[in-house]
Write a structure and sequence with these properties.
The protein is an alpha/beta fold. It is built from seven helices and six strands, in the order βαβααββααβαβα.
């Protein structure tokens, strides 16, 4: 008798503002008992330090403490580990989310440069026809940003800009963060109760 493994997702956190989005997404996926392969860029660690006060001198310690009570499995892959499991198309995952996604990472994905594990993992999603979700966090946007998003969208990438809604009556920043994470989960048809849905 074979037992099915928990579904696995790749989560990328880049140096765009909004590191809390990626942390909350990882936390939510793990709380659902799923497996998360986490990749954080060097700039992403800098933003975690600046925005969330993370002690980045002990990266493994932070991850272990932050997600210790979650039932899912967390596998952290350093950005330079181009030989990690998620760098190969033969390694099966449900999809990948880059949240938040900097314009630099978005540009590299659109160009197919695959110069680090984050962009290589995204390239694997494209070549294997697996879901790739990009959550860009930048404003204002110039033509190159928009052209890169259009290029990826035409390749089937789901673009979910970090644009929170207000129809559900958010009371605090947590509500706003949860809304964006919920929209990402919706794109994978993952059930959640992170925000109140519009019912007319």
């Amino acid at each position: 008798m074979t037992h099915s493994k928990p579904k696995s997702f790749v989560v990328g956190i880049t140096g765009a503002s909004g590191a809390v989005y990626g942390v909350r997404l990882t936390e939510t996926l793990l709380s659902l008992g799923l497996t998360v392969h986490l990749v954080i860029s060097n700039a992403g660690w800098r933003v975690l330090k600046e925005e969330l006060g993370v002690n980045t001198s002990d990266r493994d310690g932070f991850l272990s403490e932050k997600f210790k009570d979650c039932p899912g499995s967390l596998l952290y892959h350093p950005i330079a580990d181009i030989g990690a499991s998620i760098a190969s198309g033969s390694f099966r995952v449900e999809g990948m989310i880059v949240m938040p996604c900097s314009m630099g990472t978005l540009s590299a994905i659109a160009a197919g440069t695959s110069d680090n594990l984050m962009t290589r993992a995204a390239d694997v999603m494209l070549k294997e026809g697996r879901p790739l979700v990009i959550v860009p966090r930048e404003t204002p946007l110039h033509a190159i940003h928009l052209e890169n998003m259009l290029k990826l969208s035409r390749l089937g990438v789901r673009i979910i800009p970090a644009m929170p809604a207000f129809y559900y009556g958010p009371q605090n920043l947590d509500d706003i963060v949860n809304f964006m994470v919920g929209k990402v989960l919706d794109s994978f048809n993952i059930e959640h109760a992170l925000f109140r849905r519009w019912e007319g």
